[in-house]
Amino acid sequence: MKVVVVGGGIIGCATAYELARAGCAVTLLERATPGAEASGAAAGLLALLGESSETAFARLARASWRLYPDVVRELQERTGIDVEYVTRGTIYPMSASQTRRDAEVWAVNKELGVEVVDGQDVQALEPALSPKISHAIFVKGDHWLNNQRLVLAYAQAAVAAGVELHTACNVSRVVVEGGRARAVVAEGERVEGDAVLLAAGAWTSELVRSLGMRLPVEPRRGQMIAFTHAPPVLTHCVHGEAYLVPPRGPPTACRSSARGPASRGSGSRPRTSATASCSPRSPRG
Questions:
Q1: Is residue 102 situated within a structural domain?
Q2: pLDDT tens per residue, range 35-59
Q3: CA distances from 203 to 4, 7, 16, 190 (A)
Q4: Does one domain contain both 151 and 115?
Q5: Which of 5, 208, 222, 262 would you call most buried, defined as having the most Cβ atoms within 10 angstroms of its Cβ?
Q6: Alpha helices in the chain (DSSP H)
Q7: Rounded to whole angstroms, how far apart are CA atoms 191 and 173?
Q8: Exposed / middle / buried, residue 101 (Cβ in 10 Å: 0-12, 13-18, 19+)
Q9: Are residues 116 and 202 in the same domain?
Q10: Number of folded domains in the chain?
């Protein structure tokens, strides 16, 4: 089976790699270079907790979370790339308006290392955090990594598995014949396949618009500040509406959640500071 994958971010590269391992002939088309857009700008969090504890997405996230140790090991064996995988755990400080009972809703995942800790324990874990924090959720063994290295590792593993990778290759149109996507037009040339996988992120909605489809995918602007500090301020990741990510080495990344729409391909990288006094969104499972 011939598959055309459009988009060389983490989803496109990882899917191309797995398809090639399954015996497919894969062509991967990337408009810039692998990880040049959202996949390269993320903080590398592999967060277990999200907006809800009992949704299909949350269950998928937990399954993915469990796979990462083996994924990282496999990619390093195949490419030699160290993705700077860290497993020191994540702290979710709870806000003053949230009770311990609110926090315990998340503790249903105890088998994954999720527990509720009091302010004294928070201070023991991270002395730099505010003593006003009365309780928090702690995910022992939670992990994060260098997302840019992860995309590079997947891209190299994909090529080694037989994927034909084309960079600086802009796809302008999906060709549908007989009710199925049969090809794409890339740089004015037709690239055929038995199936087409769109993993183009914010550009996916534009590609399907010509087919009369509306896909609710749009870019979001986030903010980040990266700074160095010796000795390190934090040992664990601290996650709320804003999050602090201590990597294996300098610099430390501090990011806030996504805000309003952003222009595509603007290259803008707004920077701002953020606090660690935020809390996870209330679960809606």
A1: yes
A2: 999 999 888 988 777 655 678 888 8
A3: 16, 9, 18, 19
A4: no
A5: 5
A6: 10-21, 38-41, 56-79, 100-104, 119-125, 147-160, 204-209
A7: 10
A8: exposed
A9: no
A10: 2
